[in-house]
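Lecture notes, unit on protein representations.

Consider one protein chain, 254 amino acids long.
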Amino acid sequence: MKIAQRSGLENWHNRIFVFWFGSSTMSDQRARCFESLKNTECEIEFVDKHSLEKYILPGHPLHRAFAHLSPVHQSDYLRAYFMHHFGGGYSDIKMTSQSWRPAFDVLGHSDAFGAGYQEVFGGMARFHKNRVKGHVFYLGRRLPSLVALGIYKHHKRNRKRAIGNGAFIFRPGTMFTSTWLSHVETRLTLLYPLLLQNPAKNAKERPGEDYGDGPSRYPVPWSFLLGDILGPLSIKFSDRLLQVVPAPSFVNYE
């Protein structure tokens, strides 16, 4: 597989970013999934803790909360950062069997902000159940629980208008990516004092889970920095998003 070395960041076409902030080595199955990304027929830019620094733009540092997030939530944040500043594609490291070049071509000849795959059944994040400082949030608003539940039900009925979190392409610097990144960073500012007291200790840490030393006090709900934002935004802007990106396989990737 051809791995790009940060060449041509001004050109978002046919370039896919993947992030790996977990353990230093991948499992055999995850490594096979990574190798399958060659089927996209695109350049793959592999970003990990060793290479991340060269992508951080002057004047646009990572949010100060970044170092305290779990590797999963670091990846969630970086999706918004990279899609806004660099554009191109992002893919989870899951089994991939199809070329992405047709999707890049279709997006490039359209006025759409981006493209993804249709959100899968059951994939809509349950933002109405996620609380930070005792409150439920919907994009930039704090809402009463019953109001949030009503909005969630509306989104669930419109799930087919949303794109999924695991593979997508975006033009850089659009209203969509700017709004997405702004919402993520606003949430990180809210979380920062809580993260200072309870930083992540585990790669896939969830609040309340017991990892051997009692229930985790890590303050970031699982979908708070990605699905809770990207799902609603993609429904809001569905007329400017395409559903042409091949979905990865969601089984047997660990």
